[in-house]
Automatic annotation (TrEMBL):
It is found in: Cell membrane. GO terms for cellular component: plasma membrane. Its main location: membrane. It is a multi-pass membrane protein. The chain crosses the membrane at residues 254-279, 308-328, 348-373, 394-414, 426-450, 471-491, 712-735, 764-787, 799-821. Pfam families: FtsX. Residues 268-377 form the ABC3 transporter permease C-terminal domain. Keywords: Cell membrane, Membrane, Transmembrane, Transmembrane helix. This is ABC3 transporter permease C-terminal domain-containing protein.
Amino acid sequence: MTRLVEIAGSWRVAVRVARRTAYRSKARTLLVVLMLALPVFAGTALALSYASTYTSADAEATWRLGRADYKIDGPGADKVLATLPAGSETTRITYGRTVVRADGSYSLRDYEAVDVDHPLTRGMFAVRAGRAPRGPAEVAVSASLAKAVGVGVGDPLWTGLPLRERTVVGLIDSAEELGKPIVVSPADHPLGPSGPHTLVGLPAGGQGWQPPNPATLMTCRDQVGGGRTCTSSFSTFHRPDLRPDAAELATRTAAFVLVVGFAGTQVALLAGAAFAVGARRQRRELAMMGAVGAGPAQVARMVLANGLVLGAFAGVCGVGLGALAYGLNRDRVERIANHPLTEGVLPVPWLVLIALFAVAVGLLAALGPARAAARQSFRSATSGREEASRGDNLVWLVGGLLLAGAGALAALVASGTTDGVVTVTAGTVAVLLGVTAFAPVLVSIAGRAAPRLPLAVRLAARHAARHRLRTAASVAAVCTAVAGSMALMLYHSAESVDSMAIQPTARTGQVLVPAAVAQRLTPERLGELERSLPTRAVVPVRPVAATAAAHTDSAPEYGQTGLPAFPSQLVAVGGAELIRAVTGAQAPPEALETLRRGGVVAFAPSLVDGGTVELIPRDGRPAFRLPATVVPAPDVYTDVPGAVIAEPTAAARKLAVETGGLIVDTTRVPTGAELVAANSVALAAQVEAGEHLPTEITVGSKHSPHRKYGPMFLVLAVISGLVTLAASAVAVGLATAEMRNDLSTLAAVGAGPRLRRRIAAAQAGLIVGLGALLGVAGGIAPAAGMVAFRRDLAWQVPWLPLAITVLAAPVLAVVATTLLTRPRLILVRRMVV
């Protein structure tokens, strides 16, 4: 009991001293509080956003099904509905595409014909203004579509098939995707042809109902060559199937572990370095306490109390500021989440844990300095002499290798199962900690190389080596910042195998006009289409009633995707213009000679076998062969002809020539505005011709073997650079504060005022350079773990963001430190003992 009273009294004194010390050292206190409060601030905002968006495991199913238990569609849906238990509720919902005309421009938009006010659809839509449409002359539009076409509640809008003027009576967003531009019409007034779906709500006593076996409701039809084909006549979506599965929940948990692990490690390292500096500033005060009878444990509590007090203050401030920021930016959070937020959700247990996270990190950061303070020599502390950091490099090296190896082994063993994704993430965090353990070794190596370096770099390297553990903590903090951003960049740069397997339709930038659209284009509309695009030539595609046999089994083609590709087997009549449209180059003379002699020009080598191409007529006649010349296309395309013959050859072989589409060969890739204008012309021609199923033109694209970085990659690279700069600023500030005595000595012996700036820049380059190198190595492990978990991803290296992180971040740190550091050298009064 006496022991407990002594410990409680010791902690009370330590907390009181820590509070007074924090008040006396306002600048350092503010720095540490900001570091500890930043992850708490971000975690609070994220927790409130997540809790308001994903209020329950059923919330995601509600965005798609409302209050319904099933969604049933297909031609056999009526037979399924007839088996529903008594008391079931149903409502129809139709999804489709329709034409919208605004300001003379036509566009094809998604629409939903639904009773928004029905109890079963509650939760599927968010009414922003006005009300739901109730008649054939009324529609509602989403907020994004209203902004795009420039309409509001009460304005007229031409929409539907056939096109007619309707009144916009509300702004209604889809809860599944708030930013999706849609038109909403009443359930019994769809705006275009499409199959309806039925939402089913089961009664309280009928929750055990299940749809009939699909095998009992099959639609069968006879094949031309004999036999029958049977397919299921209905499909169902059950509410539990739309909830997050185990893999999704495990991935979210893993992301949480990864973020908390990386953020906690970084903050603990930076705060630990700050506490180390603070403890060194207090070493005389702590030594005096030891001299008057305080034991090592009581001295350690003096430093730990700093972490406790500052962590608690940072936790309260971070939670309060995070909640305030969330409340002021709810609309923005909703747009980012792209789902409606639920009012009045306050996850109190989460917020308490987040606040306690700052306290835990504060205590963890102060643990190392507290142990060092408890072990310090009272004689050296009272005399003002500093002791160099101690520790065997071999211990850090072996410990780091063992920790990284254990983490990698755990991640490798658990990477094959969904349940092991959290273990994989924990293993990657262990790998990161193992990599950060190499920081003291690298700092020591830099100190040994100091004699060969210039003066400013030599002084910075020797000071870093003299305070190796504190410098290593700063390097490790930068390493953690870089590793987290690198892991996200590497994961997001991983290419989907499915997307890589998508073959290009035509050459990049070419506009393909389908046959159904081309037949509706009058000469005037065709001229408008040409003028709206950077047109080089408009080439008609006239296919013949035959296909070219492909020999991909013996000689598969890979194109530019690196995966097996299947060339177009369409054969068309044409000449030099069609060859140029497909290949992008002038037709060679030997190809034109082959066409003149009745041969075939093939654009894919796999269509040619033994110098000939086999053509298979579609009218059942025997196949025949024609001599061929290969003019390879840049890639393997799917929507342009794979082979060309001359029109006399088609007539001689009695192959009917059909009406096809158009290839608009462009001089460059069309802009978004040019494509919108071209699509407007195409849709206008179809509407004027009374087309009930309008289609849009398409643009040729391909999978580039050279990685093209979208905004996500560049944003992550910028974030990595900013976080690295912030971490380096704190680290350099702490190092500069600790070098005050050394800088004062340099000033006393005649050093120029610019030397401080050069030393600070050298410190930034050393800390950020070493941290960036370790961060790249540490970021590979979590990215590899996440990519290994996703079987549909293929590894890709984002060289541009990688170069920005490894090269640009240290350079920016050096430049920023040089510009922001005051060149004046400060004289410090030395203590005489």
